[in-house]
Design brief:
Blueprint lengths: L16 H19 L20 H11 L4 H15 L6
Helix pairs in contact: 2-3
Length: 91
């Protein structure tokens, strides 16, 4: 009796599916870890250089964008913030 696992005395073409199955398992585990455990565990290399939330740079940028302050005032205040707090991105 001939089975799929014993094709002419050898493992047959079905042996090629095992590496594909293991590759799918590894890719699935990595994708699952990236979506759950590794989310939010980014180092300084993945820091977003744009200001967010209520940081002084974000408030200053919003005020300039809305027209509350002009360009000269924006650059003057930005230089004061850079002297006082420094850039987060290391620029």
């Amino acid at each position: 009796m001939q089975t799929l696992a014993n094709w002419d005395g050898g493992p047959g073409p079905w042996i090629l599916f095992f590496p594909l199955i293991w590759a799918a398992v590894v890719i699935g585990v990595v994708a699952l870890l990236r979506r759950t455990v590794w989310r939010g565990r980014r180092g300084p290399w993945a820091a977003d250089p744009r200001p967010s939330g209520d940081s002084p740079l974000a408030v200053l940028g919003r005020r300039f964008a809305s027209g509350e302050i002009d360009e000269d005032e924006y650059w003057r205040r930005l230089s004061v913030l850079d002297e006082q707090f420094g850039r987060k991105g290391g620029a």
